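Quick review question:
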């Protein structure tokens, strides 16, 4: 009985997370978490297309700056899109590209912190002062 109660308490404390089974399930999950799925679905499609085609400028435009990255084992603060584009291949590595290529919309992971691609290679979320000034942007890239 104690284990059951402990499990129930723990479940209440954990953040809400979404593991969808279909695109419609993911839509519902994102609607519940963020009040709408379309900006996230559109962002994901645009990111996947840009990464697949090697469009560094578009990917750089999808990042929330300043951006912290690890390059050569060192933490580097990337201040703007020009800096990101210059270091693109050091930040968007083969592992990151592969995770983006394998990911499907229905199998994204989402919680109150944002949406995750792969095993955390990329996180994206709505950023801005309020709902009227919000844009979906990359908030983390992890190799």
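Suggested answer, residue by residue:
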């Amino acid at each position: 009985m104690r284990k059951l109660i402990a499990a129930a308490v723990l479940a209440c404390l954990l953040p809400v997370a979404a593991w969808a089974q279909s695109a419609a399930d993911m839509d519902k999950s994102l609607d519940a978490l963020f009040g709408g799925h379309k900006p996230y679905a559109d962002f994901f499609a645009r990111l996947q297309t840009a990464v697949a085609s090697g469009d560094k400028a578009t990917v750089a435009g999808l990042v929330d700056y300043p951006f912290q990255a690890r390059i050569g084992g060192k933490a580097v603060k990337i201040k703007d899109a020009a800096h990101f584009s210059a270091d693109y291949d050091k930040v968007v590595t083969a592992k990151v590209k592969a995770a983006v290529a394998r990911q499907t919309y229905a199998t994204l992971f989402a919680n109150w912190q944002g949406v995750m691609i792969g095993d955390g290679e990329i996180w994206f979320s709505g950023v801005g002062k309020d709902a009227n000034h919000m844009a979906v942007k990359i908030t983390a890239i992890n190799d």
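Why it works: The chain has one domain: 17-141. Residues 1-16 have pLDDT under 50 and may be disordered.
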